[in-house]
Amino acid sequence: MNLITLFVIVPLGAAFLLPILNKIWKGFPDWVGNLVSAFLMGLSIWMIRSANETIVYFVGNWEPVQGIPIGIALVVDGLTVLMLLIINIVAFFVMLYSISYMSHYTDKGKYYTLFLLMLAGLNGVVISGDLFNLFVFLEITAISSYALVAYGVEAEELEASFKYQVLGGTASMLILFGIAIFYHLTGTLNLADASRVLSGNPVTPPLYLVSALFIAGFGLKAALMPFHAWLPDAHPSAPAPISAMLSGVVIKVLGIYALIRIFFNIFGLGTVPFFLNILLVLGTLSMIAGSFLALGQKDFKRLLAYSSISQIGFVAFGFGLGTTLGIIGALFHLVNHAVSKSLLFLNSGAVDYATDNRNLLKMGGLSQKMPVTATTSLIGSLSISGLPPVSGFWSKLVIIVAAVQCEQYILAGVAVLVSIVTLAYYMKLQQLAFYGHLNDIYQKIREVPLAMCISMVVLAVFSFGLGVLLIPSLREIILDPAVKVITDGIQYSKMVLGG
Q: Rounded CA gap, 424 and 406, in Å?
């Protein structure tokens, strides 16, 4: 149980030590950042052995009195383990990529400090067993990400960060207001205890208000349409490793994970049955609008940003179906998108690193000089587009089949259409950036440094081969425990508190 605390203590402690170590030797941040992220990746893989059980750690040994929690609880279950894997595996390869990429920026020490704070916050969100600490870790993540978006300190980065702060602060205010009303209604902030209090009680207007505040607040964090306005500016403006974390991890943890945990495990779908319909609507709207907006983009990273809105719509759509198959598809697509979109943002960073350009119309033929970047980008594009046999095909197929089983034939058709549009703009990206005639000004460029190539190659291998997670023996270890936590709904309170 004590291992749970290390997901927060280690990155948090390293973040506070780095400014001191950086003054001793400028190479310390690279070593400390990568060693910490490697340790957390290994720890998250080790936690797979506990995916089929629920581990609860009461901070300070404040055990529940007569079944009522009186202290801070940290909880690890199947869903937590899956999210920890996504966060820390992606973070490790992003951190490795940063060794060379961030040499273009000044003061890498501050970058690693902020990154580790963000990582501590992300881990804290998914292991928190009460709403207030979930909010605290959410704010640690958000504040550090605001600074990281502005890390280039150019006009574009500062403007994007300001917009991100304004809308992110609005989302946090809505969430905090919802938590205050929630505490008034239940008399507790412990998630499991609140679920027990709400169980069997009639739905009241204040609970509907709390639901609306949480949907708006966490929907803003997830960048679901129509709460997406901050994302198309923040993701392109941030350094490529941060874009990868924002799109691959942050919007999923602060948005989708929080919504699913609260509405499935705490409120229960019997209490707020309209939630699934809202997810279906927001997911479908995000899928359509994000894909068609991406179709017209000429900026490499802005295209990827709009694509993230579309793909997070697929995840919300799968959860909105409410069936076991839909939830499997949603979780599997969440994993696939985390890996593939992180890869594509690293690809965009590699192109920018080599050419100092993000305009697709000014590129062309880069595969001749950057074969690793071009090949891995093609794999990531095919996965996001949902072409067989890469992993994205299987998760989209599961979601579409689940929609057909629910007799949502029109929405299943929409998902297929969106996938076709997605393929169109990613093939446009590949053609404009990597194929065709090589621009004369790029005759002397070369492939990016080894650390950046290793990160892209490993994530490309994951993007190609993650379909194996649907093999029953692997699915039972990784996906099924997370699905069970969600489908068990308010049984979460018994799993955490017993009785």
A: 28
Range of the domain at 339: 3-497
Q: What's the number of domains the chain is made of?
A: 1
**For residues 81, 83, 85 and 88, what is the CA-based torsion angle, rounded to 10 degrees?**
-130
Question: pLDDT (tens digit, 9 = 90+) per residue, 99-142?
Answer: 988 888 777 888 999 999 999 999 999 999 889 899 999 999 99
- 253-280 pLDDT, tens digit each: 988 999 999 999 888 876 677 888 899 9
Closest CA to 298 of 353, 349, 361, 243: 361
Bridge partners of residue 76, in order along the sequence: 55
End-to-end CA distance of the chain: 20
Residue 296 has pLDDT above 70, yes or no: yes
Q: Is the bond preceding 389 in cis, omega lying within 30 degrees of 0? A: yes
Distances (CA, A) of 321 to 257, 275, 346, 347, 405: 16, 10, 32, 33, 10
Cα(424)–Cα(294) distance, rounded to whole angstroms?
10
Mean pLDDT of 31-35: 92
**Rounded to whole angstroms, how far apart are CA atoms 465 and 389?**
9
Nearest CA to 348 out of 441, 248, 443 is that of 248
Q: Buried b / exposed e across 190-225, counting CB within 10 Å, b at 16+?
A: bbbbbbbbbbeeeeeeebeebbebbbbbbbbbbbbb
Query: Are the C-beta atoms of 144 and 114 separated by less than 8 Å?
Result: yes
Name the DSSP letter for residue 297.
Answer: -
Dihedral sign from CA coordinates of 249, 372, 307, 410: negative
C-alpha–C-alpha distance, residues 448 and 348, integer Å: 12
Contacts of 178 (CB under 8 A, 6+ apart): 209, 210, 213, 214, 217
Phi, psi of 475 (to 5 degrees): -60, -35
